[in-house]
């Protein structure tokens, strides 16, 4: 089957997409397959299992983010998915960290709260303003927060060099984090 048909009709080609996710020629092919699997029916166990396994095995954060996005579309994220994301985020570039940090809000209530809060609090010290701002906003989804995290957000809202970070921290504090 031509690649164009696979990418325009993902609902009809889930087995081919699973195969591409598992053994595709390069990370771009596997990322595309993972993204397209999100458009397949959510009741296909092979799709859910393939996404879960790919997330568990990969060290490629681009692939992992595509897998997580598809799992979110299928409402099949869990604490293992969060652990996979938490494992790779610290080593990513800032643009990917922003995407990953904002994705963490989908893991509230899944048994990985402490790990998410720890990573997000650490990201408040990033050298990249956009990462600090995203972490500040996402932390407010994990309320109530410990006094140390609230104190750090207060500090950022008062005197961070970036207006975006100050506003993000203030917005989080306004949500009542204690």
Q: Helices and strands in order, then pairings?
A:
Blueprint: H1 3-8, H2 14-23, H3 27-37, H4 45-57, H5 61-73, H6 79-88, H7 94-103, H8 113-123, H9 129-139, H10 147-159, H11 163-174
What does this structure look like?
By secondary structure, the chain is mainly α. It contains eleven helices and no strands. The protein has helices at residues 3-8, 14-23, 27-37, 45-57, 61-73, 79-88, 94-103, 113-123, 129-139, 147-159, 163-174. Helix 2 (14-23) runs antiparallel to helix 3 (27-37). The protein is elongated.
How much beta, percentage-wise?
under 5%
Q: Could you tell me the number of beta strands? A: 0
Largest sheet: none
> What's the gyration radius in Å?
18 Å
Secondary-structure-derived class: mainly alpha
Low-confidence stretches: none
């Amino acid at each position: 089957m031509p690649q164009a048909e696979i990418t325009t009709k993902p609902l009809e080609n889930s087995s081919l997409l699973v195969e591409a996710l598992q053994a595709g020629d390069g990370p771009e092919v596997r990322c595309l397959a993972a993204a397209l699997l999100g458009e397949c029916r959510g009741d296909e166990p092979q799709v859910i299992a393939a996404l879960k396994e790919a997330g568990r095995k990969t060290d490629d954060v681009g692939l992992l983010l595509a897998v997580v996005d598809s799992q979110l579309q299928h409402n099949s994220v869990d604490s293992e998915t969060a652990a996979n994301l938490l494992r790779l985020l610290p080593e990513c570039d800032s643009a990917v960290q922003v995407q990953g940090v904002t994705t963490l809000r989908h893991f509230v209530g899944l048994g990985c709260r402490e790990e998410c809060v720890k990573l997000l609090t650490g990201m408040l010290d990033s050298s990249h303003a956009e990462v600090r701002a995203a972490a500040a906003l996402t932390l407010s989804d994990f309320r109530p927060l410990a006094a140390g995290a609230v104190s750090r957000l207060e500090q950022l809202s008062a005197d961070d060099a970036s207006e975006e970070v100050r506003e993000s921290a203030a917005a989080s504090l306004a949500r009542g984090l204690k």
